């Protein structure tokens, strides 16, 4: 794994140093002879990690200041250091090195995490501005497949990340509950459907009808015409069409709700495509007034050729609306309702063109919020080289994936820990950890190659590995059995492993911010993997005789100090998992 956490270590250490030793960096700034206008950012931009870490945590090269002053760097370094607090700064050649002592670092970081608990890493930079997040958004009368899982996982995580930073997150499920496919469903149902069968296993039944329709359509093209006709009837409010559509929708919603409950995912609004039906005309009027609507073979479109894109289809020749028409209505509705700071659309890369088109149309209308729309796109998920297509019928049902994961997780847990109470409950948590982390453990633009062996590996870079680490930390806390006290002897923290761990804890807040800036929960996933690795290095520390240093021992002071650190790691791991939407078991 390429480690992004090494990239800005010097800067982070400087920030930690500044927090631990108020006034020291300021003193450096004042002492340094320089004619840089903004000396503070000048210093920060030139920090380095010393080649030999024993020399210090970060180094400021005096020659970067000397270049303009025509003084000898070695002399500057010595002169400056002589005026600063001894021990904190030393001069080595042309470098001014700074060292953050481990006890001071612990004294700064640990009481902060102990005091703030889950709020550690939270910020108010969002100032309550609204972030509207469109995620999951499956299509009704079709099964909830793994294809929609990624949007669900990423969107829900972004929801929590933005909320942690003080934004007001608003979650919208833009259910695919309108469109020509309902014409097809109605035709198929009227031809082959049966209420009793539908009631038994509604989604699978509707799905079979859908697949059957597409197979038959290839042999008999009149079916396509019927479907178009029935969709038009639906749009015109034909009672029979509306009755069937409602039937499909109610069954689908109940089914989706069950899955969201399993996943522990909520939305603030379930406003599907049909919600915008009576808002279409206003949008059409707006577009017409702006002179953007043209006719093309009877259809109404916005010509986007000058921008190198295919035309954005608004209405078919028979007047039927399209996905893009409803999207545009949705954008206006969201803006008018929420006055959003950003509107995110967490949808796969397959719809890149669609979003480029509708965002362009908003821009052409001259709307001031055009640059607040973001398509948060992501790659495919594949199960052993099998791509998913609903039409051909080789979809993988999310619920089947969850059930399989639960069975496999239960098996692994039974082998490891046969006496575990609440095995089923824990197996479900681990199953969700495995599945969600499969999606979030990979940068979103990359494809996910899902394999059971990988996602359920308790020792790999997986959700269950993080959950297992969390359970081990919780077990330590139970074994300790007393409330954790923050007044420990901080001078007992001395090792490089402890320093590394403290530093990584300290960078949690910054990581959450990066995740929000880039709309990328994966930064948190990687952070947590690194946290687990660094913690294990501390956990497996040996003394000078090669003996394992136990966290809990007869030595009261050492035990209490280490337990304060254990609690901090557990707090941050727990909170990080929560931001990913992954449950954190106490035991497994
Ligand atoms: N229902 C669509 C699909 O399954 C996704 C909708 C995404 N959201 C949106 N506002 N277009 O492909």
Largest sheet properties:
4 strands, parallel
Sequence of strands across the biggest β-sheet: 5-4-9-10
Looking at the structure, the CATH topology of the domain at 406-580 is Isoleucyl-tRNA Synthetase, Domain 1
Q: How large is the share of residues in beta strands? A: 5-15%
The CATH first-level class of the domain at 406-580 comes to Mainly Alpha
Which structural class should the secondary elements be placed in?
A: alpha/beta
Radius of gyration: 29 Å
* Ligands present: arginine
Averaging pLDDT over every residue, what do you get? 92
Q: Name the overall outline.
A: flat
Q: Approximately how much helix is present in the residues?
A: 40-55%
Q: What is the second-level CATH architecture of the domain at 406-580?
A: Orthogonal Bundle
CATH superfamily of the domain at 406-580: Isoleucyl-tRNA Synthetase, Domain 1
State the helix count.
23
The count of strands amounts to 12
Distance between the termini: 27 Å
Low-confidence stretches: none
Description:
This protein is an alpha/beta fold and about 600 residues long. Among the domains are: about 100 residues, 2-Layer Sandwich (Gyrase A, domain 2), CATH 3.30.1360; about 80 residues, no CATH class; about 180 residues, Isoleucyl-tRNA Synthetase, Domain 1 (Orthogonal Bundle), CATH 1.10.730. It contains 23 helices and twelve strands. It has a four-stranded parallel sheet with strand order 5-4-9-10, with helices on both faces. The chain has a three-stranded antiparallel sheet with strand order 1-3-2. A three-stranded antiparallel sheet has the order 6-7-8. Helix 7 links the parallel strand 4 and strand 5. It is flat, with a radius of gyration of 29 Å. The mean pLDDT is about 90. The site of arginine has 10 residues, from helix 14.
